[in-house]
Amino acid sequence: MTAPRFTYPEAAAVLRVQESWLRRHIKKLPHSRKGRKVTFSEADLDAIDALFHHAPTTGPLAARQPSPTGAHPMSHLKPLPGRGALRTG
After folding, report:
1. Nearest Cα residue to 12 out of 28, 27, 26, 32
2. What is the pLDDT along the chain (89 residues), one digit of tens a residue?
3. Which domains are assigned to the chain?
4. Assuming Cys at both sites, which of 23, 35, 42, 44 could form a disulfide with 30, CB separation 3.0 to 4.6 Å?
């Protein structure tokens, strides 16, 4: 038995987007094409969902960054030369 394939209307319903959005962005989205017939596998739909997934970066739901251990994370940066050092005359 083969894995199910979704047409534009079916894929749009699963992704909860408009069919016209899928058609407009088809060149950037994973899909299969046989002649003029375009279909989407479940893996294609998962990949599309992952492409447009946004996780919060701030607030209580943001992923916690690990505490730095050892040197300061920006200790490799060096200061720019003073303004007087740029003048040559």
Report:
1. 26
2. 678 899 999 999 999 999 999 999 999 999 999 999 999 999 999 999 999 888 888 887 777 766 556 677 777 788 888 877 556 55
3. 1-54 (1.10.1660)
4. 44
Give the separation between CA 11 and CA 32, rounded to whole angstroms: 12
Q: Whole-angstrom Cα distance, residue 87 to residue 89?
A: 6
Largest CA distance in the chain: 80
Q: Tell me if 32 sits within 8 A of 41, measured CB to CB.
A: yes
CB within 8 Å of 3: residues ≥ 6 apart: 41, 42
Q: Which residue has 């479940």 as its token pair?
A: 42
Tell me which amino acid residue 18 is.
Q
